[in-house]
Amino acid sequence: MKKLLSVVVIAVLSMSMLLTGCGEKKDSGNTSASSDKEILIVSFGTSYSNSRHVTIGAIEDAIREAYPDYQVRRAFTAQIIIDKLKKEEKIEIDNVKQALDRAVKNGVKTLVVQPTHLMNGLEYNELKKELDKYKDKFDKIALGEPLLTSDDDYKKVIAAITSDTKEYLDGETAICFMGHGTEAKSNKVYSTLQEKLKAAGYNDYFVGTVEAKPSVDDVIAQVKESGKYKKVILQPLMVVAGDHANNDMAGDDKDSWVTKFKAAGFEVKPVLRGLGQIYDIQKIYLEHVKAAIDSLK
Predict the structure, then answer these.
(1) Residue 180 is a catalytic residue
(2) How far apart are CA 222 and CA 260, in angstroms?
(3) SS3 category, 105
(4) Cα gap 293→297, rounded to integer Å
(5) Under a CB-based contact definition with an 8 Å cutoff, are residues 223 and 229 in contact?
(6) Which of 56, 248, 269, 284 is the most exposed place for a label (fewest CB within 10 A)?
(7) pLDDT, tens digit, for every residue of 51-110?
(8) Which of 117, 180, 244, 288 is catalytic?
(9) Residue 142 and residue 214: Cα distance in Å, rounded?
C-alpha cells in the first residue's frame, strides 16, 4: 500500500510540474499571488544544475520575494538545454513561445518579462520580436532591460564584481573575467566595461570573451604587459557558471583559459561563480523589474 501511495504521489508531482511549465519546485508560481499578473524571467539556461539553482534560481527567488502579488515564472531560450533537462532530469521548462502561450491560457492580464541577459544583443532583440506578436493578448505588457544597459548599470556591476573579488587583491594578482562575446555590435559592452573599470581605478581587472574580442590571447597580452602579475584569478562574466565556465575557462583543453594562462607562466585559480550568485547583481535585475512595472502605470 505504501509503495502504491508513493507511486501516486510521484505521478501527481510530475503532472504538476508539466502543467505549471516550471519543472523545479522552487520555480513554481506564488500560491498567494494574483492569477492575472505575471513576471516571466527569461534566461538562456544551463544544464549545470548546481549553478542553475544558485544563479538563475536565486534571481527568480529575489524577484518572487520582492513581488509576492505576481506569479513568477521561468522560460529558457536555449531549446537544446530545455530538451536535455527534460531527457536527463525529467525537468520541464518552457521556451519563450510556450511560456507566453501559457500566460494567455492562464488569463494573465499584466505581463512583465525580465531577461537575465547581459546585454541588448541578438537574443534580447529576438525576445522583443516574440513579445511584439503578443501585444494584443494582454492588457499590459512590459519588457525589462538587460544587466548592462545604462551608465548606472555599469557602475553597479563594477561595484558588485570588484567587491565580490576584493579578497584576491594583493598587488601581484590579476582578476580576469571571461564573457561570452558576440558578433553583434553589442559586443562593445566588454570593452566599455574594461574602460570603465580602468577609469574607476580598478587596474588589476581585465575583461575578455570566448567567442569575440577581446580574446583570451588579448587578455594574456594585457596582463603580461604590466610585468607585475604572478597569479591570475579567472571568473565568468556570465549569469551562470555553465558549459563555457567549466570547459572554455576552467577546462583541461589546450585552448582553455586556464591552460593558456599557465602556459604563459602564471599561477592560475579558476572560480566557478556565476554573476547570478552575487547579491548586488540580483539587486540590479530587481531594479530593472521595478522600472518595467513602473512603466505600466
Answers:
(1) yes
(2) 14
(3) helix
(4) 7
(5) yes
(6) 269
(7) 999 999 999 999 999 999 999 999 999 999 999 999 999 999 999 999 999 999 999 999
(8) 180
(9) 33
